[in-house]
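Intended use. Records like the one below are meant for learning the mapping from a protein sequence to its folded structure. Do not use them to infer anything beyond what is encoded.
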Amino acid sequence: MNKNKIYLFSSRSISKIGDVLFDYGNVTWMAGLSAGMAAKYVALYQSVQSVVSIIFNLFGGAVADKANRKKLIVMANVLSGCACIIISLFNQTATMALGMIVVNSFLALIGAFSSPAYKSIIPLVMKKDDILNFNANMETAIQIINVSVPVLALPLVKLVGVRGALLIDGVSFFISALLNSFIVARDPNTSRVGKRPGILVSIFDGLKYVLHDATVRLLLIVSALINLFLAGYNYLLPFGGNIFMDNRAYAMLLSSGAIGSIIGAFMSNKIRKSISVFSLLGWLAASGVFIVLMALSPNLVGTIIANAIFEICLTIYNVQFFSILQMSVNDEIQGRVFSAVFTVAVLFMPVGTWMFSEFVSIRAKWGFLFAGLGICVTALIGMSYEKIWRKSSH
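Structure written out for the chain above:
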């Protein structure tokens, strides 16, 4: 692994530690409030983040393609660190929940610009043949963090409090910014001659590519609809203690899901690079089946195993999908394409969070059953369309 890969890998891993600690500490703290307030604040925390992402993701990709991607990532890390340190200065009162929601929204705004920049800088610092391997290794590291940080977060938050955890988050972002500053990336616009297009024209170019590429279009439509139900799954997860009658359930589900993602990332690295769209959608359908089994399992052990297998299937889909885009899309337009992908993919997530918060009990398993069936049916419809479309195109 060359120095660029090491810096990118290390910085992403460290900032991910901050992300997981931030979300786990905040959501756990909110879920511990009175039942009515907990449901309200957790739903608001998750849905506002999605709304901000939808609004600003398209602009983020256009900016990433026009600006220096490395500098954009570094600046995003610095601003995120400052935001975490500022919120850590607040007193632990009821108003802190609103402060957490505001800061989370600000981080989502920053992420709308840094995420496309991060995804689109990868092809600029390594060979295309190395991209799938890097993504799989990166996903493995991220999921190891997802396994270990929740386990360490509970005693850490008890030791230093929520404010101390937020301070640690801020420091992690500053370290990530320092590492990213050492990256040397080639300029994707060296072949461009003349004036660059404006932001709105750039956004349109990204959307046009997504809409005209039949494969990307199908996968995005399916992903957007499936995220409606994944938002419900994510909303219900912090209430695992209530649903499965065990206070350890949330941490155990997070850890089992992360272990599943590690296995999925490893498996994805072994799967051939030319995986078919039909097979990709098959992994999504399988993920829905195992969410259904989470709800039908008679005990917590079965639920945890089903959750791990669900994450294996979902991770294989995600790693393969993003690797396909990074290897096939022109470097100059990658930021805009990823912005379009992120925007469309999360389009229905606020609706999903609202729907589950309004109509699904935070003490009943059937919410997971509904989420799993929705994912499975949507993926099967996509697979059917893919089979019919392929036949008609030949």
